[in-house]
Task: structure prediction
Amino acid sequence: MKTDGAEVLSKTVTQDEAAILDAWNAALREGTSLQSGRIREAELQTQVKAVFGQIRDALASGGLDADAAGFASLRETLADISRSRAIQGFTPTDTANFVFSLKEPIFDALKRMLDGDATALAAGVWAAGKVLDRLGLQTMEVFLASREEVIGRQGQEIAELSTPVVRLWDGILALPLIGTLDSARTGVVMENLLQAIVDEEAEIAIIDITGVPTVDTLVAQHLLKTVAAARLMGADCIVSGIRPQIAQTMVHLGVELNVVSKATLADAFAVALKRTGRKVVRQQAPAEERR
Amino acid sequence: MDRIPILKLGGALIVTIQVDMHDRLALALEEDLTAMIARTSARGVLIEISALEIVDSFIGRMLVSIAAVSRVLDAETVVAGMRPAVAITLVELGLELTGIKTALNVERGMALIQARLSEEDDGHESDRDRHEN
Result:
């Protein structure tokens, strides 16, 4: 007699539901995910019950192919759980173990059901292993994808945070750059600067590169692009804060910045004030004036 | 619209581009503008492009060539009101419009042209005049 692993598995899971659920909960309790305090036991049990119910239904609908349509809702539930765990900061092991810890209870249940029928037991164990491994892998895939998403978003946030445009005076903007300039960041910097020029009706923009660790030909090219774009908008650019070592390296590399450059932001600001017809004057101390 | 209107204001010509530029329109503008500069002997040309949302390399080159032609006819070109996205596109295309003055808006653009006009009225010779003498 040919033994169908899927049928055996489905029958076992349906008939021995309570015992398997208890064993699974116990296994999860022993695991580290509860101890880390990131999830409550009640929440975990709700997830367990939901996932188990869907596994049972999916198996009953026939087939062991975890990519089939019968498994669609199960896959979705697992993906949701895995995604929320990635955001809550679970370890990959904890997340994978959520599915893999179901193996032992199911194997035990199969053993109880098919005591003595070695062929059927082997078929059932193989079927359970196949389905659960696939589900576990899918869980991990979603987990990793969510983590990547989180990392990508953080990278974007850092890029946005580190490119502020500051208004120094009416019509004078400063753009203190911090960190390495790559093409993606140059894009953000350029957009922010140009928008600020429109919003503030700025005449002069000072690009301060004190916080830029290295200036090579590529960074210089990015800077020049930004300067050119600002000029097209009708604003002049001054580059400031080129450190002595960087200035030397730039000259040795043959990098040319054909823009007005000043050593410090203060110097650049003075130039900007002068060009807009203003200047900073020291007032006499009020105490002396009164005398 | 098959022609872009050109307005004369004192010694300056004003063009505002308010439709999407296509190639034929650009060529017609260059021709009209050249004729107009010669007829009115204008000293400044203000091209206002704040409504222009899409540029390609042809439009960029057309702006450069309008500026070059105007310079030959002794008029200075100022491009005013370029949008950030347009500026980024032009820079990425490698068209930095060297030789064209730029201004944030029409007011500042006119100020640039007025500055040149009054400078010449005061009797200061511009560089080009000196070369010709």
